Amino acid sequence: MFLGASDGHMPALDGLRFMAAMLVAGGHYTGMFVPGIFPEVLHSFTGLGMTLFFVLSGFVIHYNYHATLQQPGGVRLFLAARFARLYPLYIVLFLIEFAYLVASARSPCARAGDFGGQFNALLNYLTLTQSWTYAVACEKALIYQYGPISAVTWSISVEMFFYLAYAAGARILAGRDVTRAGVVGAAAAVYAATVICFWLCGHYQAEIDSLALETFGRAASTAADYNDSLLRWLLYFNPLARLAEFCIGVAVAIVFMERQPRSAGEAGKLASRTTLGTIVAVVAVHLWLYAPGGDVLIGRVASQLYAPLVGIMMYCIVRDITPWSRILSLPLMVALGQASYSIYLLHEIFPSAYKRLGIETANPMAAWALWAATLALLALVSRVSYLTVESPARRVLRRLLAPRLPQRT
Question: Which tens digit of pLDDT belongs to each residue from 40-96?
């Protein structure tokens, strides 16, 4: 039995979610102050946080819903549950930010004098499809049409794509001919195909830029700004570019569910050392791939490249009771892990507020203190958001949207 597990819930995964959210927020918060105060490598840990989120997603989705999807009404139940998980807080924050941008004329289209253009991407955001296609309006890519909160929701759009894809492929995974080796092999094939696509994008960047310039205008080329470019969408925001991470999570879940039991003695010091070794390996590979002066293409997709190692680390964490799984299963870690979605969606509020208030410092000690205090405040606000918005809205929506199954007599 896994530490603290009940009804399939594994507390250590909540702790991992919290760590992923903190990596993203902590990395983004390095830009709140005067440039050069924080090491550049600290910002790069946002990549590890995102990869951890996507691998976790694949694991949790398959572990929790593989049986549900085979039942009558299971697909609807699954989609209702995931919609109730993602949409309420997302739509509240998006509509608040959208209303503010319209009222203050701060959107890219409003600043360009195209006030009607700021509504062009609205349907994409309302349907959570903003990362599924590439488009440019008012010299900004679809991802950056609105404010900083909306910009981070690209990953929520990717998640929605994964949920629909998983629901469509669930019967295949449940087939009698599907083996653990087959699923792992399929995940490896998706990963290999992703790496090849990354290499092709790097090799043919000039051709991609030329196509982007001709089709979408100058803003879509890397010569204007890499962040808005078609190339970045292909490498980073495109759901297919992140599919390997999700598939690795699914494969890890299948391997975990078919694991052979072993005695406490076998799972003692060796398991603890192995788990620590995988954690150290993930951090070491991250630092190596993101090292300043390295290959530009690798630096743009580094965390996606070591996603298999993240999957192995996750398996080791949930496989046995170790000091590391105990830390991740602490009540505080679990409580903050439950609020990880709020942490992710709310974290860009603070840099925006600091900028409006003119809060900045060139003092390294003061910057570090404010950085840590902001993360702590974010965690507190997010826990309140989870208790007052996320959790109640999820219960209500699941009750409304779940299928009414016939009563057994």
Answer: 888 899 999 999 999 999 999 999 998 888 888 888 899 999 999 999 999 999 999
User: 127: helix, coil or strand?
Assistant: coil
Taking only the tens place, the pLDDT of each residue in 309-338 is: 999 999 999 998 889 999 999 999 999 999
* Residue carrying the six token digits 């924050």: 93
In this predicted model, what pLDDT tens digit does every residue of 258-284 receive, in sequence order? 886 665 555 677 888 999 999 999 999
Two tokens, residue 357: 């208030």
Our CA dihedral for 87, 89, 91, 92, rounded to 10 degrees, sits at 160
- List Cβ neighbours of 84 (8 Å cut-off, separation of 6 or more): 393, 394, 395, 396, 397, 398, 401
Structure tokens at 72: 């009558």
Taking only Cα atoms into account, the Rg of the chain, rounded to an integer number of angstroms, comes to 22
> Contact, 249 vs 64, CB < 8 A?
no
C-alpha span between 400 and 77 (Å, rounded)? 11
Of 302, 375, 284, nearest to 21 by C-alpha is 375
Contact predicate 3/326, CB 8 Å: yes
Residues paired with 6 in a beta bridge: 9
Buried b (16+ CB within 10 A) or exposed e, 2-22: bebeeeeebbbbbbbbbbbbb
- Closest to 92 in 3D by CA, of 25, 26, 156: 156
Lookup result for tokens 């760590």: 19
Q: Distance between CA 187 and CA 159 in Å, rounded?
A: 17
Helix ranges (H only) for 34-179 are 40-65, 74-104, 108-111, 122-126, 148-151, 154-173
Q: What is the model's pLDDT at position 401?
A: 86
Looking from the CA of 45 toward its CB, the CA atoms found within 13 Å total 20
